[in-house]
Design brief:
This protein is an alpha+beta fold and about 300 residues long. It folds into two domains: about 140 residues, no CATH class; about 100 residues, Thrombin, subunit H (Beta Barrel). Helix content is about 55%, strand content about 15%. Helix 3 packs antiparallel against helix 8 and helix 6 crosses helix 8. Keywords: Membrane, Signal, Transmembrane, Transmembrane helix.
Length: about 300
């Protein structure tokens, strides 16, 4: 069993090395590794004291201290720090010990030290902790793992490589160019959609066929994508529900296949199955303008 003095000496050596002038001159990655190793040494020391307390059967506050340490060092944070320091070989064993001791702390809280000690023996947690201590304590503060250490390829993180300045500038310019191109493309698509969906008020007579029914109607506005039609029935009868596929017949144009998308009393909104040609829309607008001018000329004074 590792003695308390040995553990404290190792932790103090790591802390002194982290605060020494040599460490201050070392790269930030070495300082981060030194602080990480110091945390791992203190972790296994708190776990060892917790096991000693369980064996003694007395409550000396070690469970509370271990719980505080685990709360202050989340597993996600430790995993990232281990990977950045290149200590992937210690990741699984570190997280395994943390998970086991969280379970033991919960058993100790609910059932007392006797049950917790029995569970620790059943899981072999004490042997795992001794093996972990034998691996972590001899590591120097400036430990640098070999480049081809096992698990390095699976880390997903690691020491960040210093990119050349030319690569950074090129990447930034490429990002700006792609962003500008995407913005221009989005604006062009929005304008095109606006042109297609722009509605033109009109009053064009037509027939709307839905199944076996044929309604006399009038187009009140139209675009290349659809139209709004007002259905008129004699004697003020209510307009029945019109849904599904319909056919709009307008003088001078072939029948237009469409689908109803909404209905509000005698107003029916339809969407054309195929986009209306620009020339066809222009022809309808001219006819509507001619219809509007003729009645005004008829009623104007001589």
């Amino acid at each position: 069993m590792v003695s308390k003095s040995l553990v404290l000496s190792a932790a103090a050596a790591l802390a002194l090395a982290a605060g020494s002038p040599a460490a201050a001159a070392a790269p930030s990655s070495s300082r981060a590794t030194c602080m990480l190793l110091s945390d791992l040494v203190l972790m296994q020391y708190q776990m060892r004291k917790f096991h000693d307390m369980l064996k003694a059967g007395t409550d000396t506050g070690e469970a509370r201290r271990l719980h505080h340490w685990l709360s202050d060092h989340p597993q996600v944070d430790l995993r990232i720090r281990l990977r950045r320091a290149g200590l992937q070989n210690f990741e699984r064993s570190t997280l395994d010990l943390i998970t086991r001791h969280k379970g033991l702390l919960e058993i100790h809280r609910r059932h007392g030290p006797g049950k917790a000690e029995a569970e620790a023996k059943r899981l072999g947690t004490d042997a795992r902790l001794q093996s972990y201590s034998a691996r972590i304590l001899p590591l120097p503060c400036n430990y640098a793992p070999p480049e081809d250490s096992a698990g390095g390829a699976l880390s997903g993180l690691g020491q960040l490589k210093q990119l050349p300045q030319e690569a950074v500038i090129t990447g930034s310019l490429l990002t700006l160019i792609l962003g500008a191109a995407a913005g221009v493309l989005a604006q062009r698509l929005a304008r095109r959609r606006l042109r297609l969906s722009r509605r033109h008020p009109c009053a064009l007579p037509c027939f709307l066929e839905c199944g076996d029914h044929r309604f006399e109607a009038r187009i009140v506005d139209i675009s290349r994508l659809g139209a709004k039609v007002r259905v008129g029935l004699e004697d003020g009868q209510p307009v029945p529900l019109i849904k599904g596929d319909v056919t709009a017949s307008v003088t001078g144009l072939p029948p237009i296949e469409a689908q109803t998308i909404r209905q509000d009393h005698d107003y029916v909104g339809i969407k054309f199955s195929s986009r209306l040609a620009r020339a066809e829309l222009k022809r309808l607008r001219k006819r509507n303008a001619a219809q509007t001018v003729e009645p005004q000329a008829a009623v104007s004074p001589a």
